[in-house]
Amino acid sequence: MTPNLLILGGTTEASQLARLVAERGIRATLSYAGRTETPRAQPVAVRTGGFGGAEGLAAWMRQHQVTHLIDATHPFAAQMSQNAHAAAALTGTPLIRLMRPAWTPAPGDDWTGLADLETAAMRLGAAPRRVFLAIGRLHLAVFAGQPQHDYLLRLVDPPEAPLPLPRVTVEIARGPFDLASDLALLRRHGSDLIIAKNSGGRGADAKLEAARALGLPVWLIDRPVLPPAQTVSDPAEVLARLHADLGV
Question: What would the DSSP string read from start to end of 131-159?
């Protein structure tokens, strides 16, 4: 069987896998959700936008004769992972989840794990704080009920509409970030708290190192529970699974 992968992407690991399969001459399509205006160029075919739920994804896979579905979405893209699991079952297609390990604390870290963003918003309290809200732009409305705080956001693209936070500063930047720049960022804005999703990986952990160096508390949102799947943490492991399945 000639392999034909559908890689559900949007992560560094998805891009790394795209490069690896292109080098091997393996046919693949990298799918983006379309939330970033200027995604990086890729060495494989690219599609952008949703599929129309699990059944739409399954139909696309049948139409394009996908042999393996690779869920390399963000660890918090729970709905897409659920759709991938369901579509794989509907089509009888092997599913491999490529997911970076979660962050774990090191000596000197002041971390608090929280179940969700709603819990973090309620925990902020009445006294004004200067919060580096490192959660992207999709769920900012959760914090609209806490307008007394000064929020710092770092986004890949400029916001197209007014943000639901009255006291907010936006910095436009694309990772990966380093310790020096994140130390400068936190000092420049006088941040006294970081709220972030436990995304894991090396592309966005500099803020955690900077928090450790500055003695700042970090509230990390726990990852959602995802449906079961073969899970690997390294793009090279996906190739190993393909070799085991197809001998490629």
Answer: EEEES-STTGGGGTT-TTSEEEEEESS--
